[in-house]
């Protein structure tokens, strides 16, 4: 087993272990992938201020987001098809998160169902909702998440239409999958992954199959999901969903200051400043660049979580120091899961916490709560000078 010291190491093992079509599904953005690339490269532009002669003995990375205490302010983001990266992937990622003391978010488009995850772990998790045209189905999903004791509803707002990722089309990644000769040849080489998959609890969308009338085979599932995302989702509908849920709500996919103000207006508890990891609007600015204008717009009236592009504890530190209350990671934990299952997710979290803790110390801070802009060197014009 190679020595694993950073997230990129996990990615290399993941790439070897998992069928190409699922690796590509993770490792791509929409269209030209500009936003996908810039999400990470923009973090590199921000530098850190080194501080010395500070007592670094009692350090803490612990944080609180929406009233929930966590060992570090990093939640696992909702990721569709996680259970295809590793057998029972959602159950394993949820357990790793729970043991580590950070929130796990289950996607609507997961392989394991809400009930599978609830049975597998003892604490609460967050549930991510895609609103569907079938309003009865959406209501039942909300009720199922309530019954499972989910502690927050994460409503994703940036996917009323599915961004096009060229690799997915070429690999035939759709529901049902269109298996090309290249895909079949590649699947045949991934026997470690395949053997484990044979014993997986599920291999299809666990929150849908068995919960919608007439969806019982891959073809009917494909037809249903292809036309189900609700194109008419607006702020009125969001308010109604929030009412229906009645608990903590996080609105995910906010990248514009005016939208952030609307999130405050409808009474959400938090927003996720996100461009869906560069998978939706290609050409949008990176989340880290949009963070300051959004923080300025909401002025502390709502908690702000940031995702898209985080690949290290240094990235987490930069987001927190710029003013985010918390962060989410997507690909960083999926690399770990695909590489080594639950242990890989734990490894990803350990790597990020160690990097966050050491970087914080070298910046002369002992508690993530004290991080601020004074720890950063932000290039002039980082947010960009765009005409109105
Ligand atoms: C493979 C993949 C699948 C995703 N599926 C979902 C999803 O089902 N629901 C959702 O709200 N976001 C989804 N996202 C977006 C993530 O929640 C998160 O916003 C994104 O991964 C953050 O960027 P990062 O991967 O660079 O950390 C997905 C992201 C990836 C990479």
Structure characteristics:
single chain; 388 residues; alpha/beta; eight-stranded parallel β-sheet; 12 strands; binds flavin mononucleotide
Spatial order of strands in the largest sheet: 4-11-10-9-8-7-6-5
Mean of all residue-level pLDDT scores? 96
The major pleated sheet works out as: 8 strands, parallel
Number of helices: 16
Radius of gyration: 20 Å
What does this structure look like?
The protein is α/β, with parallel strands linked by helices and 388 residues long. The chain has 16 helices and 12 strands. The relative contact order is 0.20.
Task: Compile the SSE list and pairings.
Blueprint: H1 7-17, H2 20-26, H3 34-45, E1 47-48, E2 63-65, E3 68-70, E4 74-76, H4 82-85, H5 89-100, E5 105-106, H6 114-120, E6 126-129, H7 135-147, E7 152-156, H8 166-171, H9 181-188, H10 191-198, H11 218-226, H12 235-245, E8 249-254, H13 257-265, E9 270-273, H14 287-298, E10 303-306, H15 313-322, E11 326-329, H16 331-362, E12 376-377
Parallel strand pairs: 4-11, 5-6, 6-7, 7-8, 8-9, 9-10, 10-11
Antiparallel strand pairs: 1-12, 2-3
Helix pairs in contact: 1-16, 5-16, 13-14, 15-16
This protein binds flavin mononucleotide.
Offer a concise description of the structure:
This protein is α/β, with parallel strands linked by helices and 388 residues long.
């Amino acid at each position: 087993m190679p020595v694993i010291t950073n997230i990129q190491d996990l990615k290399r093992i993941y790439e070897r272990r998992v069928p190409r079509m699922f690796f590509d599904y993770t490792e791509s953005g929409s269209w030209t992938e500009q936003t996908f690339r810039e999400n990470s490269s923009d973090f590199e532009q921000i530098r850190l201020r080194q501080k010395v002669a500070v007592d670094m003995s009692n350090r803490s990375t612990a944080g609180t987001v929406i009233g929930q205490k966590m060992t570090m302010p990093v939640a696992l983001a909702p990721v569709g098809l996680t259970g295809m990266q590793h057998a029972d992937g959602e159950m394993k990622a949820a357990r790793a998160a729970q043991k580590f003391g950070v929130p796990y978010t289950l996607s609507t488009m997961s392989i394991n169902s809400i009930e599978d995850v609830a049975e597998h772990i003892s604490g609460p998790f967050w549930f991510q909702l895609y609103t569907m045209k079938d309003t009865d189905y959406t209501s039942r999903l909300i009720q199922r998440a309530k019954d499972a004791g989910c502690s927050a509803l994460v409503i994703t707002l940036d996917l009323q239409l599915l961004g096009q990722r060229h690799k997915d089309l070429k690999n035939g990644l759709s529901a049902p999958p269109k298996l090309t000769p290249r895909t079949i040849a590649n699947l045949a080489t991934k026997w470690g992954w395949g053997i484990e998959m044979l014993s997986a609890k599920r291999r299809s969308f666990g929150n849908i199959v068995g919960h919608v009338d007439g969806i019982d085979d891959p073809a009917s599932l494909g037809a249903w999901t292809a036309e189900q995302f609700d194109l008419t989702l607006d702020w009125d509908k969001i308010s109604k969903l929030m009412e229906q849920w009645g608990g903590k709500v996080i609105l995910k996919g906010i990248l514009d200051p005016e939208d952030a103000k609307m999130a405050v207006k409808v009474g959400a508890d938090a927003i996720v400043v996100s461009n869906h990891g560069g998978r939706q609007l290609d050409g949008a600015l990176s989340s880290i660049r949009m963070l300051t204008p959004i923080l300025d717009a909401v002025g502390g009236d709502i908690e702000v979580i940031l995702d898209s592009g985080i690949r290290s504890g240094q990235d987490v530190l930069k987001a927190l120091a710029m003013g985010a209350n918390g962060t989410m990671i997507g690909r960083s934990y999926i690399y770990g899961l695909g590489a080594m299952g639950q242990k890989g997710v734990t490894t990803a979290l350990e790597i990020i916490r160690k990097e966050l803790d050491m970087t914080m110390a070298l910046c002369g801070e002992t508690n993530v709560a004290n991080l601020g802009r004074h720890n950063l060197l932000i290039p002039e014009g980082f947010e960009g000078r765009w005409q109105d």
